[in-house]
Each structure stands twice: as structure tokens, then as C-alpha cells.
Amino acid sequence: MARGDAPQDSYHLVGISFFILGLGTLLPWNFFITAIPYFQGRLAGANSTAGTLSTNHTGPTDTFNFNNWVTLLSQLPLLLFTLLNSFLYQCIPETVRILGSLLGILLLFALTAALVKVDMNPGPFFSITMASVWFINSFCAVLQGSLFGQLGTMPSTYSTLFLSGQGLAGIFAALAMLMSMASGVDAQTSALGYFVTPCVGILMSVVCYLSLPHLEFARYYLAKKPSRSPVHELETKAELLQSDEKNGIPNSPQAATLTLDLDPEKEPELEPELDEPQKPEKPSVFIVFQKIWLTALCLVLVFTVTLSVFPAITAMVTSSTSPGKWSQFFNPICCFLLFNIMDWLGRSLTSYFLWPDEDSRLLPLLVCLRFLFVPLFMLCHVPERARLPILFPQDAYFITFMLLFAVSNGYLVSLTMCLAPRQVLPHEREVAGALMTFFLALGLSCGASLSFLFKALL
Asked: Per the record's keyword annotation, is Metal-binding included, yes or no (predicted)?
């Protein structure tokens, strides 16, 4: 992709910068859901400021449905701003979008950290927290879309680094939670330290972004940015989601196909009758949807299942053992840390094989089988229930379900994003990428909405 006269990335500073920026884009969501026990503890008492970061043996009550609301209000902005990209990208300069979003996230996370020390009634605390969740994730949606647009001008290696940073955000949040809990300080100080951590991460992201114009390698690629439509930036996002798992490999066959398709067209410039095959520059959205509808539906269903129980139901599961260190660390380790590690592993599996392929009807079957995880998790050891019995009380059941749940989520998400471009012609990949990005956001929102129903059925 780079020409011979392209500068070198000295000390890999640009790569490190995009890695940290990727980490920063998903830190807010992961830090909020990993701290669900803290928020539930704050909402359980009339004037408690010492919400703990860990669940106790019986688990804190979720009278405000915090798990459900934090999931829904985190995913709706992604769907909304996916639809509003045209307006935003035309009216707001890129620097304002990226830097403004980072500073907005930093400010709101600083507010969340400050509230640890503020004595508040549950009602106002819940309202302020939900408003913060909405605005933080709105900023994150704008930030991700803008950064994906920038990455479209960079070599594919930097796309992989950015997505690697995103993939590690959940693991980073879970480890930060465990370190805060194991620090031995009081609950309030532990929570404060936990929420200050993403503030430092976002501040580092701001520094990294501001440093890019001063790095020759970044200037070389970002300066030759072509005029890109919002749809093109969404297509870039979809391609980058594949390149994370394939380490840039999926882009190579696509680029080769485009080159092979375009090179012969240089000859027929003098022959008007051969100009007609060049017409499909504006592919029909309906025709592209007809080709990828099944893959897009599979993507929606994968995220619908995942977000309907994670973290709304899974965060409520507690250890069935007697109170102690294991019961204290059970949920952070077996729910959040385990999910993020196995999800990352599942996404990485597509680097080695893609099965089933795009023509197989086995993919929809595998996706539908994941609906079994909904009753399985609902029948685990969740103390606060009024209707359903506990059929899987042992910790080993929950751990086994979580392993399969997380690996299948990562693998099937990665697989569907890799298969979609294979089902369309090269000139249709732009529209296919935009559609897959929209359906990704739709699946997240559907799952978050369904979590209310499943919570009520417990």
C-alpha cells in the first residue's frame, strides 16, 4: 500500500498511538458494565457512597434494572449515530469530532469518578449515571466512526493494531476491577481508583491523537486522504472488523480482485462499446441486501442473544460456595474476564479457518442454537428470582456455559463479517459494509431491549 518513498514509522509510534486509541474507544462501555456491582450497591441504599466493586454471596438487588438500562443506553447511541453519520460527517470537521468526543468522554468519566465521593440518594444517582452512559456512548460512536475513516488511509497493519486495542479493552477493564478489589483498601477508595483508571486511558488517547500531526509517517498517509462518503467510512469499518481476525489478510484478496478488475479497463478506454461494464458504480442497496440478507440476519441474531443476557443476567449470577475470596472474585473473573478472553480467542480462530462457508446453511443453524444460552444462564445461580427455579447451581455449570457462549460469540461475529464481502461483487462491498455495520448496531440494540423481558421472567 505504501510507495517506496513512504517514510518509516519511527519507533512504531504511530502504531502504538492507534493501538491506544483503539483501547480508548471501548474502555467506557467495558468499565461501566464491569462495575455493575458497584452501581447496584450504590442504588441499594438510601445514602450509600461505598458501593463495593464485588458481589457478595447473595448479590446486590437490582431494583432499578441497572443491568438492563446500562446495556440499552450504551447500544442505542451506536444505532442512532450509525443513521446520523451523513449529517455529522458533512457538518462537523474530523478534528472536532475526534478530539471533542475524547474530551467529552474524559469529562463524563471524571464526573463518574467524583460521584464515588458524593453522598446521593439512589434516584438522582441513577438519573445522572444513565445520562452519563448515554452521552459517553454517543461520543464513543462518533469517535469510532471518525477513527475508522482515518484508518481507511493507513496500511492494514494499523487497522489490526487499532482493533487489537479494542479487543483488549474488556480484558483491561476486568483486570483493573480485580486489582482494585485485591488492593486491600476500603470500598470507596477502591471504586475511586477503578474509575480514575479509564480517565488516564482516555487522557493517553488524547495525547496520542494530538501527536499524530507531528509524526511524519502519520502526516504522509493522513494528508492524502481522499474525499470519503460516510457510507465509505462505514464500509471501511466493516473491512477492518475482518482484518482484526485475519491480520490484514482478507483485505489482500479484495485488493487483488479490485486490481485485476481495474487493470484491464485501462485498455478499453478507446472502445466505447466496452465502457458499459463500468456502469455498476452505484450498486443498488436492495440488490446487495438480497445477496447478504442471511449473513446480516445471522449477525443480528448473534448480538441479540449476547446482549440479551450479557451482562444483564450473567452479572447477577453468584457463586454457590460459602462466602469467601472465591465468591467475592467469582463474577469479575468468571463473567467479565472469562467472557472477554474467550471472545477474543473466538475472533482469532477465523485467522486459521472459516467454517461454515458463505454457501452453507449450517451457519444459521449454529446461530439459532445460541438461543439455548438464554434459558441456561437464567437457570444458573441467580439469587434474586421470583418465577424460575435454579437448575444449575454449581459454579462449574456457569463457567462452562460462559466459555461456550463467549467463544461462539467471537467466532460467529468474526465469521459473518468475513463472509459478507465474499457474497457481493467488488464494487458492491461499500454498500455491503454499510449494511453490515447497521445490522451490527441493530443486533446490539435488539439484545439490549430483550434483556428487560428476560430479567422480568426470572
From this structure: no
Number of domain units in the chain = 1
CB 16 within 8 A of CB 165: no
Grouping H, G, I as helix, E, B as strand and the rest as coil, residue 424 is coil
Q: Grid coordinates standing for 88?
A: 455529522
Q: Residue 420, class by beta-carbon neighbours within 10 Å (0-12 exposed, 13-18 middle, 19+ buried)?
A: buried
Please check whether residue 85 lies inside any domain of the structure. yes
Quote the CA–CA distance of 312 and 382 in Å, as a whole number.
11
Strand partners, 41: none
CB-based contact 105:140 (threshold 8 Å): yes
DSSP state of 380: B
Q: Do the Cβ atoms of 450 and 457 come closer than 8 Å?
A: no
Could you tell me if residue 274 is inside a domain?
no
Mean pLDDT split into 10-residue runs, the chain, 458 residues: 69 93 90 88 66 56 81 90 75 90 95 92 93 94 85 81 86 91 84 91 95 92 59 49 41 31 39 48 85 94 96 93 88 94 90 84 94 97 90 96 96 90 85 86 94 93
Is the bond preceding 375 in cis, omega lying within 30 degrees of 0? no
CATH code, 165: 1.20.1250.20
The alpha carbons of the chain give a radius of gyration, in whole angstroms, of 23
125 within 8 A of 62, measured Cβ to Cβ: no
What residue numbers bound the domain in which 16 lies?
10-256+280-457
Question: Tell me, what's the pLDDT at 274?
Answer: 45
What is the spatial distance between Cα 132 and Cα 58, in angstroms, rounded to a whole number? 28
d(CA 69, CA 135): 14
pLDDT at 94: 86
Does residue 269 fall inside a structural domain? Answer: no
pLDDT of residue 256: 30
Contact 383, 59 (CB under 8 A): yes
Examine residue 443 and state whether it is found in any structural domain, yes or no.
Answer: yes
pLDDT at site 451: 95
Q: What is this structure's pTM?
A: 0.81
For Cα atoms 351, 14, 239, give the angle at the middle one, nearest 5 degrees: 35
121 Cβ contact list (under 8 Å, min separation 6): 46, 47
CB environment 392-417: b (16+ within 10 A), e (fewer): beebebbeebbbebbbbbbbbbbbbb
- Residue 368: partners with Cβ closer than 8 Å, 6 or more residues away: 301
Among 390, 53, 41, smallest CA distance to 190 is for 53
- In the beta sheet, which residues pair with residue 389? none
Residue with cell 464491569: 34
Residues 165 and 205: beta-carbon distance below 8 Å: no
